[in-house]
Amino acid sequence: TPSTTSVCNGSVATLTATGGKVTSSTSLSSGTVNLAIPDNSSTGISQVLAVSGIPAGATVTKVDVNFNINHAWLNDVEVALRAPNGKYIILVADKGPAGAGSYVSTVITSDNNAAALTSTATPITGTYKANALTTGVIGSFGSDLTATFSDLFTTANGNWTVIAYDDASSDTGTLVSCSITVSYESDGAPVWSPVTGLYTDA
What we know:
Elements: E1 16-29, E2 35-37, E3 45-51, E4 59-71, E5 77-82, E6 88-93, E7 101-109, E8 124-129, E9 158-166, E10 173-193
Parallel strand pairs: 7-8
Antiparallel strand pairs: 1-10, 2-10, 3-9, 4-7, 4-10, 5-6, 5-9
């Protein structure tokens, strides 16, 4: 496409538009909260991450949840994410050793190309796709529990809630901290070429 063009009356010139979409993300952290995870509880402990500022009409493309948990019997731990639209997904369940252990800066991503979490070692760190179980978990989710992470994407702004559970008796732990990153695509202004002599009403 030339940088300039001449158009005579009655003739046609080709204009090329590029861009028009903007990719961005927003992150929110709880900071250190040290919330006690109740023993053998279907309620668990919740930490709300109130996301705001994502443009209306934006399309969520990915969600990453980072958390730190210490537990006397790490294999008892289950972690769920509740989206602003009311849908839940199980991030991790029954992983790590049958004994004391921790999740350290562990990231669970909606990117299904990430590795599955199979470790029985501790600490558990790195980035993994969600376990996405729909049965055999301690929390009560009803029909709002899904195995498809993108089911949580329909409402970007609002309360994203990380919920940590202990699913057996005699051992407890602590949700030290958590954070979320919501990646999205929104409409942006297209860039026209060539622009010389192009009429605008600006």
